Amino acid sequence: MAVSAIATPVAASSGSFLISPNVGLMLWTLILFGISMFVLWKLAFPRISEALDRRQRAIEESIDAAERTREESRELLEEYRERLREARSQAEEIIERARRTAEVHERDTQAEAQARREQLMEQTRREIATETRRAIDEIRREVADLTVMATEKVTRKTLTEEDQRRLVEEALGELDFSALAPAREE
Amino acid sequence: MSNRKKVLWGIALFYMVVLVLLGVIFGVSGHKNNEFQIQNEFKLTNWVDLGVLSINRGVLYLLLTTILTIGTMMYIAGRMKARPNRVQTAVEVLYSLMRENITRGNMADDMARKWFPFIGTLFLFIWYANMIGYLPLPTNTEEKFNLFGVHIPSFALYAATANISVPLILALVVFLAFNFEGVRAQGFGGYVKSLIPAGVHGPMLLLIGPLEIVSVFMRLVSLTIRLFANILAGHMIILFMAGGLAVILGLTFLGWFTMPVAIAVYLFELGLVATLQAFIFATLTAIYIGGAVSHH
Fold first, then answer.
1. Residue A182 belongs to some domain of the structure
2. Same domain flag for B2 and B70
3. Are B14 and B124 members of one domain?
4. Which range has the worst mean pLDDT, A61-65, B13-17, B78-82?
């Protein structure tokens, strides 16, 4: 045995039993260590190991689950934000559209009113012109009749159709109706 | 001066005064006690004669070690909870230390799975053997004391690992284990070759080769002596300081002086050396086994 080499020099002293191996104790050690190892190996260690591994797995799973949940909630939040953004932009669009519609409507109304006003003005103007023309025509007729009558009184003779026309044309040509007509040129 | 300092100075002063008083009362010139041999504290007396397997205090300590090793581990294994209490947490830390640091840290994973029961048991067995070595038990049948007419063996500190036989046989098992593993993994020639460092050729081989071979055998000796001598020396110092010195020199008052040292050494041994030696033994075993299969 390897230890006997170092045991020899001190064998003479009274403490030599301290370093001389005791075979019985060695056997006991071997037996008891063997039993301990067998029991721990077959019964204790697998259970402890299994429990530790199971916990390890459980921890890993819960970490994974927590990460998944966080990811999901992040996505959800993102989705909500997206929707909120959409809703806001839609709202803005609606307002914008409403404003545009209102503007268009206002413009249309204004244009319509303008058009209507102009139409009315035009109509009035036309009526005035018509009336004026009618009045002028009446005046002409009156003037023509008066002219014929006056001429007949002066000449004591009935005028022929041709004379009459000529006289009327002459008389009317000298009269200025422009003052009666509405101020068209302006 | 702070309060703490005052208290410490007070204790020191009290200590010195009592020391002087004891010196005066009992006298400084004691007579030497040549009968008391401190190594006899570690003698194995056979209690039950069973031939080679006779039961003595070493066997008792081994039995206690075995019961504690198996008992605590089975107890914990039987009630492993998903939510651990403090004891379970402590055992789990210990278990992880054995499995991850000692075993897996020094060998490949498949080998670690195979060798963990051995290395784990080795650690626990040595650890318990060391720890109960600091528990005074009535095992000194040479010196009995009388308690109400009952002769009770004196309480003594002993440890199975303070006897060379226990570390030696464990080291022998380790020695066989790593050599067996090495030869199996690399073949006999390959294993012997792997012991010699790479790059050694020619005449150097004659010089270094035998040295390396011897160093493998020295592992057996160093494993044994490291554990045995550490525990034995620790117990020796505790015994000397706790009264052995005073008895041998016949200076009774000296006991007062050495007792605090004994307590300090006791705590040091219990708190550090016992665990450290078990850790070193198991770690070296793992390193040897792990190293035996790798090519250098």
1. no
2. no
3. no
4. B78-82
A183 in any annotated domain: no
Number of domains making up chain B: 2
> What CA–CA distance (Å, rounded) separates B42 from B64?
17
Smallest CA–CA distance from A48 into chain B, residue? B77
| A33 vs B: CB within 8 A | yes
- Number of structural domains chain A divides into: 1
- In order of A103, A105, B255, the CA distances from A110 in angstroms are 10, 8, 122
Q: Within an 8 Å CB–CB cutoff, is residue A10 touching chain B?
A: no
Query: Are residues B164 and B61 located together in one domain of the fold?
Result: yes
Helix (H) and strand (E) counts in chain A: 4, 0
- Supply the range of the domain harboring residue B8: 1-30
Facing A28 at nearest CB: one of B59, B69, B170: B59
Q: Render pLDDT for B87-128 as a digit per residue (tens, 0 to 9).
A: 888 888 888 889 888 999 888 888 999 999 999 999 999 999
Under 8 Å CB-to-CB from B115, ≥6 apart: which residues?
B103, B107, B177, B286, B289
Claim to verify: residue B22 and residue B69 sit in the same structural domain: no
Q: Can you give the residue range of the structural domain that contains A156? A: 4-174
User: What's the mean pLDDT when you consider all of chain A?
Assistant: 83
Question: Which residue of A lies nearest to B161 if distances are taken between CA atoms?
Answer: A29
- Residue in B closest to A57 by C-alpha: B82
Collect all residues of chain A within an 8 Å Cβ-Cβ radius of residue B39: 14-15, 17-18
Residue A24 inside a domain? The answer is yes
Shared-domain flag, residues B66 and B14: no
Closest Cα in chain B, distance from residue A50 (Å): 9
A29–B170 C-beta distance less than 8 A: yes
- Label residue A114 exposed, middle or buried (CB < 10 Å: 0-12, 13-18, 19+): exposed
Taking a C-beta distance cutoff of 8 angstroms, is the pair B154, B144 a contact? yes
Are the Cβ atoms of B77 and A47 closer than 8 angstroms?
A: yes
The residue type of B190 is G
The answer to whether residues B22 and B40 belong to one domain is no
Q: Do A35 and B42 make contact, defined as CB atoms within 8 angstroms?
A: no
Per-residue pLDDT, averaged over A148-154, amounts to 80
Residues B20, B138 within the same domain? no
Query: Within a domain: residue A184?
Result: no
> Does the beta-carbon distance from A43 to B74 stay under 8 Å?
yes
CA distances (Å), origin A155, targets A147, A159, A163, A165, B44: 12, 9, 12, 16, 190
Nearest to A29 among B62, B74, B76 (CB): B62
CB contact A35 to B (< 8 Å): yes
B197 and B67 both lie in a single domain: yes
Tokens of B71: 């008992």
pLDDT in tens, B233-251: 999 999 888 888 888 887 7
